[in-house]
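Course exercise 7: structure representation. Students receive a sequence record and must write out the corresponding structure in token form. The form below is the worked example handed out in class, using UTP--glucose-1-phosphate uridylyltransferase (304 residues). Read each field label carefully; the graders check that inputs and outputs are placed in the correct fields and that the protein name is recorded exactly as given.

STUDENT ID: A-19
EXERCISE PROTEIN: UTP--glucose-1-phosphate uridylyltransferase
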Amino acid sequence: MSALSDQTGTARARKAVVPVAGLGTRFLPATKAVPKELLPVVDRPAIQYVVEEAARAGVGDVLLVTGRGKSAIEDHFDAAPYLESRLAADGKDALLASVRAASDIARVSAVRQGVPRGLGHAVLCGRDHVGDEPFAVLLGDDLIDASSPLLERMLDVQAAHGASVVALMEVPEERTHLYGVAVAEPTGEADVVRVTGLVEKPEPGTAPSNLAVIGRYALRPGVFDVLERTAPGRGGEIQLTDALEEMAGDASIAGPVLGVVFRGRRFDTGDKLEYLKTVVTLAGERADLGPAFRAWLVDHVKGL
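STUDENT ANSWER:
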């Protein structure tokens, strides 16, 4: 068992970097002109769930790392005076509140990535904004159930131990090749492991464990120095996994790397089938939509 008591605590992260520069090719042609992050999950775009998660965890300063054609994401989190005035004049108070809510969640700003060179490069684009502070990274394809405080737990672990922290989830062996996979050892905390290595999308049958890295990170600012010297890896891109693997192998570089093993609900909106499952699941759980929607769904399935 690996003890954690030798680590020095740090301040709690107050900023988040959210990479949103991807092309969304798996959802073409829907994403030809509309960013995939704005595809609706019931009646809110997927990216809003992510920013709301950051805000619930006390991270109220969110930097979007965008690219060409993504300005509509920034617009979503901005005020819309004309629309708001029309809704107010028409007495549509509930809709007005929902529109205003998007711009009140957090302080949202953006920086352009320019040439998309991988997740590691996208994180590096946030360096000037983050400065010399711990920070969170949230990937837009992963939605975490609001009742599961994963990010809060990760930030607690980071602050207590002065570590970089990755979110891990147990996956079936036949799916490990789809993820970065951790080499890990237990600690004195049931849901925390020490990460000693990472393998990005291992070949089938070669994964070192079934602990897959999912899209939440709580990082120390030292990761920026590592990313700057990280050579392009898999796919010719700068991989965040490669930088974290270097850090995990030598804690003197930028502190240790820990993992929080998550056992709550995670939804993948980056895959068409999983996206549809997400919409159906969350719609079915809504108090305003759920009863009628579930009844229709039962009848619909019977008729197939």
